[in-house]
Amino acid sequence: MNKSRVMTLFAAVLLTLSLSLTACSKTDQPETPANSNAGNSQIRDEANPSDEAQDEEVKQGKGHFTGMIDNHSVEIEVNGQPMAFQMDASISAIAEELAPNEPVEFAYVEKAVEGDDTLKQLMLTQLGKASQPEPAAGLPATKQLEVELEGMKEERSANLTEGKGYALYVFDIFTFDSETDTLSMNYDPNYKVKIVKLPSDYNTEQLVLEAKEKLADTGKAEEVNSGIMHKFMPGTSVFLEATGKELTQQYIVKEIDGQGYCFELNIPHGEPSEGFVPLAYASLNSIVTK
Length: 290
What we know:
By secondary structure, this protein is α+β, with helices and mostly antiparallel strands. Helix content is 29%, strand content 41%. The termini are far apart.
């Protein structure tokens, strides 16, 4: 074998060996940064909070603060129904500053109860006093209203509050819910008045028929003596009353400055009724149409 052929064969062997070493090097090399990141993405996802927790729907609500159940839960009355909410320490500090029956605004999320996905736990994320509407233009923020209590006339200070298309003056013993147009007693919210601003074409006879149907569950609707009616609620065209064993309900239609209003009074039988009725009448008589 001549020298030229030996050199050619030797070169071929070296080329084969070189290709083999290169292939081994690529097979054994560590992951690149890009490959490393892809492998770790699942670890980071598992370490983060679940997507479900991040996607919880935050719901808003308004109601009246009933009180604290314990250090980490409160009760809020929403549309007349008590609801229990859980809370953390920061919300608890706010709740401790609220008075019973105080109007509040809040936000919350629903969390599934561990072990039973059909049950939901309501967790407060925000809690605070409900914002108050701006005073109606031209009306004083407070006003002295005359009331008759136990046969004696006196004047009491009341605060301006706004409803849907009207304003009225409310005594400190009351809370007015502008969302439901309901005036209720702080001591017992079952003492309340529902205020309805009537349309311009309302039919009095039709209202009377509807009122008698509503009052039938309590008792037979009777017309209140006109002398009594106009003494406490002047300008009324309808004044019906039904009395049951534990409750009296009144249905009143009254015009104020040409605008018709309907008042539905709920009066449980009890000592508070002696103060509730005359004070409620005084507030209703103070209505100013906007």
